[in-house]
Amino acid sequence: MKKIKELFFFFQINDVSAFKSKLQSDIASLITTTSQLLSVDTQPITAVNLAFSKPGLDTLGITDDTGDILFNVGEEATIGVMGDDSANWVPQFLGQHIHGVFLLASDTESNIDSELASIQSILGSSISEVYSLAGAARPGNEQGHER
Description:
This protein is of the alpha+beta class. It has helices at 16-27, 34-37, 54-59, 69-73, 109-123, and strands spanning 5-13, 46-52, 100-106, 127-136. It has five helices and four strands, in the order E-H-H-E-H-H-E-H-E. The protein has one domain (5-137): Alpha-Beta Plaits (2-Layer Sandwich), CATH 3.30.70. The relative contact order is 0.29. The chain has a four-stranded antiparallel sheet.
């Protein structure tokens, strides 16, 4: 998949019942599948992915053991393991405020903005934005060497 723009939209769930309902009825069909990505002909204009944090899963009532100790204790508790310092962190990432993240990827910011607006319209007040982070492919000869 060659999408040169991306956006990470971190959110908090405010209304579990409404969120679950809209996730099942309207959002699930927006999530990009692996099979869609296998061919340029089936890739959506804007790819959408969704992930949840442990506090997000707990909020949704999903308490299964993931088998991943670091995931279960949360990113803030693993700061030392990662060799990081919380003083370097964006404040919104401290605490248990982030329940999930939508990752949107496309060729233009306009496509991403349009898809995000649609998602926000569908979910309404059942979520609220905690933080957003935009990314893009490196320009010129450096494109393709982002990692």
